[in-house]
Amino acid sequence: MSDKQLILVVDDDPDLVESLSMKLESEDFRVAKAYDGVEAWDKIKEEKPALILLDVMMPRKNGYEVCNEVKEDPQYQDIIVVLLTAVGDAVTSTSYTHMDGKKNLADDFIPKPIDLDDLMEIVKDNLE
Asked: Which runs of consecutive H residues, i.e. helices, occur in the chain?
């Protein structure tokens, strides 16, 4: 068992998952990857991560649903959830609303497009 903290990266954009994973690994984190909310749950149960970087708009199960399920489950509620969201720019064109975000139990948010330095700051702040 490694003492490196595990971060689960969940996004339906494989290029984004790859670039975030490379950045996190370069900062000495272990990374697990999932490409939708259902797959994310499989990974969470398989090996409980310290932190989840979770996209909001995904097929099969969206990030708000996954986040709230994690936070309402006593076994997993201590996992830090950071939502990756482009919703602010896309609210008028999607079924996602700011109210969904406000009702959400996420620990933090980072807007897309993601600034990797900002992301690392948020990850490290939340894991201290």
From this structure: 14-26, 37-46, 63-72, 87-90, 98-103, 116-127
SS3 content of the chain, % helix, strand, coil (to 5): 45, 20, 35
- The pLDDT of residue 40: 97
Q: 27 with 5: CB under 8 angstroms?
A: no
- Residues 6+ away with beta carbon under 8 Å from 116: 19, 20, 23
* Residue 40: count of CB within 10 angstroms of its CB: 29
Domains and CATH numbers, the chain: 6-127 (3.40.50.2300)
Structure pTM? Answer: 0.87
